[in-house]
Amino acid sequence: MDVMIWIFIAIMFVIFELMTNTFVLICFSAASLASAILNYFGFDLNVQIIGFIAVAAVLILATRKFSDSLHPVNDRKVMADRLIGKKAEVFKKTDKNTFIVRVEGEEWSAHSNDSIEVGDIVKVVGINSIILIIEKED
């Protein structure tokens, strides 16, 4: 493989890195440049490929912590998960075990096996699809 092909591959990885912002493809770009250097010094294609894999692996492992710091994990609760543990007011009983409750100003369908009446304050203990699971507040 010609040196220019490795350089072209390195440039393509840089372009893709700019589009994705993952900090992984830049490691492949550097590995491509290392393979281009091996090609320049006349090493066999198999050595160039092994060099590419080795340099890419070392760079990815070495920069993993830095890469993770660029994209911190978002552990905020989303959607209805934020309602677990909140108190709710029962304002409509639609069935023996099915209710409409108001939690933080929002109305939700709810289910409970407890003996609950309209006006009771309940606690959200879980979610099943879009239905809150509630228990009577002690």
UniProtKB/TrEMBL annotation:
Residues 80-136 form the NfeD-like C-terminal domain. The keyword Flavoprotein does not apply. InterPro entries: Membrane_assoc_protease, NA-bd_OB-fold, NfeD-like_C. Keywords: Hydrolase, Membrane, Protease, Transmembrane, Transmembrane helix. The keyword Transmembrane applies. It comes from the Archaea. SUPFAM superfamilies: NfeD domain-like (SSF141322). Pfam families: NfeD (PF01957). This is Membrane protein implicated in regulation of membrane protease activity. Coiled coil: none annotated. GO terms for cellular component: plasma membrane. It is found in: Membrane. The lineage of its organism: Archaea, Methanobacteriati, Methanobacteriota, Methanomada group, Methanobacteria. It is a multi-pass membrane protein. GO terms for biological process: proteolysis.
